[in-house]
């Protein structure tokens, strides 16, 4: 029998203060799906990084940001969709060279780098000024 895919999504105002509500949304989904708590820290970090970037770089936009959680078998995917925005593809960012001394590094990009390292994969889609970043995590 094939694994059932379960999806939940919710819209959040473009404000940093919404992170607490987003984390409650993630917690509720984890509880409903009986997903092991050990995966929450990675999900929190990735969601916080992507959400705060959307707020920071499109602060004059009043559109809400949609967070969607999908659970299918052993895979969890999380998508953040931003509306009426210019294209910004985090998957195209070069990897950060963490072996360089701090004074030799350029600021920026470390959050996206951590998402790429801590999750299984990151995908990006841009259609009609709608930007969606999705990351995937295999659950054990």
Structure explained in plain terms:
- This protein has three helices and five strands, in the order βααββαββ.
- It is of the alpha+beta class.
- It has a single domain (5-138), classed as Heat Shock Protein 90 (2-Layer Sandwich), CATH 3.30.565.10.
- A five-stranded antiparallel β-sheet has the order 1-2-3-5-4, with helices on one face.
- Strand 2 (65-72) and strand 3 form a beta hairpin.
- Helix 1 packs antiparallel against helix 2 and helix 2 packs antiparallel against helix 3.
- The protein is globular, with a radius of gyration of 15 Å.
- The mean pLDDT is 88.
Provide tags for this entry.
30% helix, 3 helices, five-stranded antiparallel sheet, alpha+beta, single chain, Heat Shock Protein 90, 140 residues
Q: Can you say what the CATH homologous superfamily is?
A: Histidine kinase-like ATPase, C-terminal domain
Strand arrangement, major sheet: 1-2-3-5-4
The SS-based structural class is alpha+beta
Q: How much strand?
A: 25-35%
SSE layout and pairings?
Blueprint: E1 5-12, H1 19-33, H2 40-57, E2 65-72, E3 75-83, H3 110-118, E4 121-127, E5 130-138
């Amino acid at each position: 029998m094939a694994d059932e895919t379960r999806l939940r999504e919710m819209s959040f105002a473009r404000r940093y203060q919404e992170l607490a509500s987003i984390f409650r949304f993630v917690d509720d989904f984890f509880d409903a799906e009986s997903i092991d708590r050990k995966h929450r820290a990675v999900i929190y970090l990735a969601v916080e990084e992507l959400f705060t970037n959307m707020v920071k770089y499109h602060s004059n936009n009043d559109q809400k940001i949609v967070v969607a959680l999908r659970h299918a078998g052993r895979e969890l995917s999380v998508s953040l969709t931003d509306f009426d925005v210019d294209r910004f593809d985090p998957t195209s960012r070069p990897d950060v060279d963490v072996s360089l001394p701090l004074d030799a590094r350029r600021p920026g990009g470390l959050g996206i780098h951590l998402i790429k390292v801590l999750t299984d994969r990151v995908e990006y889609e841009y259609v009609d000024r709608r930007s969606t970043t999705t990351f995937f995590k295999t659950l054990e």
